[in-house]
Write a structure and sequence with these properties.
Blueprint lengths: L3 E6 L1 H5 L3 H10 L3 E8 L3 H7 L9 H8 L4 E7 L3 H9 L12 H5 L8 E3 L3 H11 L7
Antiparallel strand pairs: 1-3, 1-4, 2-3
Helix pairs in contact: 3-4
Bound molecules: guanosine-5'-diphosphate.
Guanosine-5'-diphosphate (GDP) binds next to α4.
Amino acid sequence: MSNRTFTMIKPDATSKGYTGAILDQIIKAGFQVKAMKWIKLSEEQAGLFYDIHRERPFFGELVSFMSSGPIVAAILEKENAVADFRKLIGATNPAQAEEGTIRKKFAASIGENAVHGSDSDENAIIEGDFFFSKLERF
Ligand code: GDP
């Protein structure tokens, strides 16, 4: 069990003006921001980040969506961070997400689902390292 996770506020949410409301919900849930940047991925960078999904039928859609506009990438800290953050964001498909979760409130579809949250401690480290140097995290 680790105390850090990695998140992205995805292009659907940044373009609809939800960034502030989503960050507010994350911070009010007890997560501390340890690193953060506003950045736009190229298709190649989005493909590298989601390399594990390369063989999935939705890979092309995912990569073009994730490079379609700016995102907010962040490393968050809290006890039991990975599991608690997955609970806070809700199911991948917002139609199945619990009431009050970030995806239920802000996501439109299974593809454009407002936020990313690491699914394991190991991936939280890999994903945080993808975006942030040692100088950029505190
Ligand atoms: P997560 O861990 O809840 O983000 O879900 P996954 O690891 O299964 O999928 C990664 C991301 O791929 C999701 O957050 C969605 O943005 C996207 N995705 C998953 N399933 C689908 C799908 O059926 N269609 C599309 N277009 N995108 C999907």
